[in-house]
Design goal:
alpha+beta; Secreted effector protein pipB2 fold; four-stranded antiparallel beta sheet; 31% helix
Amino acid sequence: MSVCGLIIVLTVGLSVLTSPLQARIQLDIIAKFRNAGVELDVVTVVDSDVEASKSKVALLGIATPLRSSFSFRLEEWLSLIDLWSKAVKTQSNSWKVIGSMTETETSDVSHLTISAGPGVKFVISSSRKGIVTFVLSKDDTGGFEKALYQVKEFFSR
């Protein structure tokens, strides 16, 4: 299964995995954050059916109940950590875009934009799925940062 296929399967429904698929794919939810009925998930995925160098993927997913996700390899995850660090340092009473990323290796390319304000805002936009937004409260910044570094460690194993 290609990375594109894997992302499509995971995005369609993380909870709808079939038995044969479970044997090949290991999915771990690292953290869940909730705010105003919206959920942000940090997920790691290992697909044993692809070459080792491409078997690990991390996902940032937002459920509004519309569900959209953005996939990362290690290099992109490190860029996310950099954007996150800048956003945390830039928080204020008004929103300011810190930076954005474009997904690779997928047929439905998503864009992730991170903004700083009274929290950190994540916006995932996709031509197929539309736009989903999650605002991480200041109270959840420590937990999200811990999840970021857990995923970084996942990539190094």
